[in-house]
Amino acid sequence: MLIKTGPSIASSEITSESVYLKRRQFMAGAAGVAGVAAFGQARAAQNPLKYRAASLDHSAYYTAEKLTPESDVTSYCNFYEFGNDKGDPLKNSGDFKAKPWSVTIDGDVAKPGTYNLEDILAPQALEERIYRLRCVEAWSMVVPWVGFSLADLLKRFEPSGSAKYVEFTTLEDKAQFPAQGSFSSGIDWPYREGLRLDEAMHPLTLLAVGLYGKELPAQNGAPLRLIVPWKYGFKSIKSIVRIRLTSKKPATTWNMLAADEYGFYANVNPQVSHPRWSQASERRLPSSLWSPNRIETKMFNGYQDEVADLYTGMNLRRNF
Ligand code: MTE
After folding, report:
1. Which pLDDT tens digit goes with each residue over 166-212?
2. What is the pTM of this model?
3. Which is the closest atom of ligand 1 to the Cα of 254?
4. Which stretches of the chain are assigned E, i.e. beta strand?
5. From the CB of residue 176, how many other CB atoms can be counted at a distance below 10 Å?
6. Protein residue with least CA distance to atom 4, ligand 1
7. For residues 131 and 128, what is the distance between their CA atoms, to the nearest angstrom?
8. Residue 78 C-alpha to ligand 1 middle, in angstroms?
9. Which residues, 6+ apart, have CB-to-CB distance to 31 below 8 Å?
10. Which among 10, 99, 243, 289 has most CB atoms closer than 10 A?
11. Contact call for residues 12 and 77 (beta carbons, < 8 A)
């Protein structure tokens, strides 16, 4: 997503298990484990993340498509705070501290405040959701996330009638994020994203704390990130420290950088090309020169039945 150059090609670095073991362990006891399928159980047994397996009774929370291997998910990343190349987030995040962590929830809510992540998570039952992630650069993955609905969290803090949007902000810390201290990124830090309130309250919108049954690695947005599976990946902001409810549409990082290339909505749409490349198809990772694994991109990334109603009557070409 560099402004001047096109998307870069995969560098396939492998993440060893020891990289994860070095990460701090996720606090235990967050979730109920009712209905754990063999799939979730096997992974949960290897680490303290307790979660309910992907629910089969809600088809959109689960896809049977082949999972992208964990080594690709954790080594081919976009996290510009750690550098511009796909391998930089893994390479440069070894010392990242995801604990202690607090999140400010403020703006148009009845209960504003800054809360320890443990307190935010305590009442939330974690569950696995297997979602497609489609990057605006035309590559995609299938990732087993562990998290909970953003709607459940927002309800606890009681949005007021004036709240129409939700703004999310990533940690700003030059000591931990090398690129925040350099002028070359061109990004006005901290990274910011936003959703309309109804998008934020949609049951598919997830706050993730883990992937592949383990706590999120730093390069994938530890300890708390957003996942909005029907939107381009840049909406899925990482390492969140603030969630602000507001009556005004928030300014968002990529839109501020290049408004003609990255819209506020950023719904996956194969019919609306990026000004510099088509969005009609995508490389599903793992992909290589010899085996590109190119597939057709689906409207709303395949979540049309669930989310199309949110945009009834809206010109999706203009509101890209
Ligand atoms: N969040 C922050 N704070 N900084 C970033 O650079 N990159 C976004 C999004 N969230 C980004 C971010 C982009 S462009 C994508 S495609 C996804 O994270 C990638 O998530 P992944 O690296 O876990 O696959």
Report:
1. 999 999 999 999 999 987 788 999 999 999 999 999 999 999 999 99
2. 0.87
3. 14
4. 102-107, 113-116, 127-134, 139-149, 165-170, 192-196, 206-211, 214-215, 225-227, 240-246, 281-284, 294-296
5. 18
6. 79
7. 9
8. 4
9. 50, 51, 52, 124, 125, 126, 127
10. 243
11. no
